[in-house]
């Protein structure tokens, strides 16, 4: 599974996601299957999903 | 040249007093508490020194409620840690999970750290301050869905096997730690201590009779891309990246005790070799595919324990089994 697919799998599990913070190292800048979700890179090594009011929804680590 | 041989020891099994996250963690705590100085066979549980197998476990309570346990090995240079955690609802911040698993209320979570610094808290982004935290993978369904849960832990010098028997019939097991011997000292293929580290889970489904052949759920050394299924993760040497296992062999699951026992009555001990999707990893250390065994079956030779069986059933000695060399 690509990094994009892994992130999209989580967004699908948490439909209220509005923002995905992703590691810069993963190179993902957009989620084609979820164009309404903003993607931002950060220096942390895990991903974080937030809802429209900035509430944390989930954190996860990408593999591979 | 092979690494130091691991010797496995089994702690006493403790049945949870209730099917709750707290009761299950407290049952594990009763099993692994550093006050426990002997294993289930009466042998000594040493926490330091050459060949010691006793991991030092610490209970993490928040407001008096147990939410996690973490374990520090008796030796080694990689500062590894193992964490098991569970909570009735997601805490804030939400614990970091390993893709593709998601947090499950009252579900048992297991994670692994290399290069640990000081412990912060179990659901922090970096529970041990430093990077190389795996995040959590799931084992079993919500514990509240079971009527009974027997908790057990096997320890070796560098690995732990965390086991639950649910409803007296279904076996879940999670091996964690320096599970693999790459049989090389090439820096790119091993950590600085010559080992490869990782963890496995059968997922939300108990070990199946063909758990060395299954590819999706209730199996070992496979990685499904669906949350709650079987997963296998291996640290890429020297970096903060987890690769996934890629077992290329399968068992039929139909092997009988007869054909897995030699003419002298000795059980077969087939070594296991595991790759990751990014390349070859190595030999599983002192764990072998053997003849069908029952849950918690002890293998003896001349009255002396030689191995502990990892079986999928309490009643049916059929299908796949592993033994953990004593």
Key phrases:
heterodimer, A: 64 residues, alpha+beta, 4-stranded mixed sheet, 1 helix, B: 326 residues, mainly beta, 13-stranded antiparallel sheet, 5-stranded antiparallel sheet, 4% helix
Structural class of chain B: mainly beta
Globally, the shape of chain B reads globular
Give me the Rg of chain A, rounded. 10 Å
Determine Rg of chain B (CA atoms, Å): 18 Å
**Residue runs with pLDDT of under 50 for 5 or more positions of chain B:** none
**What is the oligomeric state here?**
heterodimer
Give the terminus-to-terminus CA distance of chain B. 21 Å
Average pLDDT rating of chain B: 97
Please provide the count of β strands of chain B. 19
Largest sheet of chain B: 13 strands, antiparallel
Number of domains of chain B: 1
| Distance linking N and C termini of chain A | 8 Å
State the order of secondary-structure elements of chain B, H for helix, E for strand: EEHEEEEEEEEEEEEEEEEE
Percent helix of chain B: under 10%
Average pLDDT, all residues of chain A: 96
Instruction: Indicate the proportion of strand residues of chain B.
Output: 35-45%
Number of helices of chain B: 1
Largest interface: A-B, 18 and 26 residues
The major pleated sheet of chain A works out as: 4 strands, mixed
Strand order of the largest sheet of chain A: 2-1-3-4
Alpha-beta classification of chain A: alpha+beta
Describe this structure in words.
The complex is a heterodimer of chains A (64) and B (326). Chain A is of the alpha+beta class. Chain A has one domain (3-60). Chain A is 17% helix and 31% strand. Chain A is built from 1 helix and 4 strands. Chain A has one helix at 3-13, and strands spanning 19-23, 38-42, 47-50, 56-61. The radius of gyration of chain A is 10 Å and the shape is globular. The termini of chain A are close together. The mean pLDDT of chain A is 96. Chain B has 1 helix and 19 strands. In chain B, the strands form 2 sheets. In chain B, strands 1, 2, 9, 10, 11, 12, 13, 14, 15, 16, 17, 18 and 19 form a 13-stranded antiparallel sheet that branches. In chain B, a hairpin with an 8-residue loop joins strand 4 and strand 5. The mean pLDDT of chain B is 97. With 326 residues, chain B is mainly beta. Chain B has one helix spanning 21-32, and strands spanning 9-10, 14-15, 56-62, 65-72, 81-85, 96-98, 108-113, 133-139, 149-155, 159-166, 170-181, 196-201, 231-235, 242-244, 270-276, 279-289, 298-301, 304-311, 321-325. At the A-B interface, helix 1 and strand 4 of A face strand 6 and strand 14 of B.
């Amino acid at each position: 599974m690509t990094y994009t697919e892994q992130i999209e799998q989580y967004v699908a599990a948490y439909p209220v996601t509005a923002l995905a913070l992703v590691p810069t190292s993963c190179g993902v800048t957009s989620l084609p299957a979820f164009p309404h979700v903003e993607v931002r890179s950060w220096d942390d090594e895990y991903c974080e999903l937030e809802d429209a009011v900035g509430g944390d929804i989930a954190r996860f680590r990408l593999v591979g | 040249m092979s690494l130091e041989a691991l010797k496995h020891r089994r702690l006493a099994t403790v049945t949870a007093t209730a099917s709750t996250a707290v009761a299950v963690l407290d049952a594990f705590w009763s099993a692994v508490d550093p006050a426990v100085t002997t294993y289930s066979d009466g042998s000594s549980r040493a926490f330091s020194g050459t060949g010691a197998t006793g991991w030092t476990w610490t209970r993490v309570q928040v407001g008096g409620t147990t939410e996690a346990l973490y374990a520090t090995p008796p030796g080694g240079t990689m500062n590894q840690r193992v964490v098991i955690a569970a909570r009735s609802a997601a805490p804030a911040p939400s614990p970091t999970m390993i893709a593709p698993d998601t947090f499950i209320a009252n579900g048992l979570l297991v994670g692994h750290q290399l290069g640990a610094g000081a412990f912060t808290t179990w659901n922090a982004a970096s529970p041990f301050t430093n990077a190389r935290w795996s995040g959590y993978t799931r084992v079993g369904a919500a514990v509240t869905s079971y009527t009974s849960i027997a908790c057990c832990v096997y320890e070796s010098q560098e690995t732990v096997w965390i086991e639950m028997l649910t409803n007296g019939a279904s076996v879940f097991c999670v091996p964690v730690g320096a599970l693999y011997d790459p049989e090389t000292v090439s820096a790119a293929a091993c950590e600085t201590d010559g080992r490869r580290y990782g963890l496995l889970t059968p997922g939300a489904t108990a070990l199946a009779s063909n758990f060395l052949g299954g590819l999706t759920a209730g199996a070992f050394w496979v990685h499904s891309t669906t949350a709650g299924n079987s997963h296998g993760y291996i640290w890429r040497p020297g970096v903060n990246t987890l690769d996934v296992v890629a077992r290329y062999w399968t068992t039929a699951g139909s092997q009988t005790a007869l054909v897995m026992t030699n003419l002298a009555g000795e059980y077969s001990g087939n070594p296991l070799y595991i790759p990751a999707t990014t390349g070859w990893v190595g030999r599983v250390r002192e764990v072998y595919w053997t003849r069908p065994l029952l849950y918690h079956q002890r293998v003896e030779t001349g009255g002396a324990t030689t191995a502990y069986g990892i079986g999928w059933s309490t009643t049916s000695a059929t299908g796949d089994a592993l033994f953990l060399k004593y």
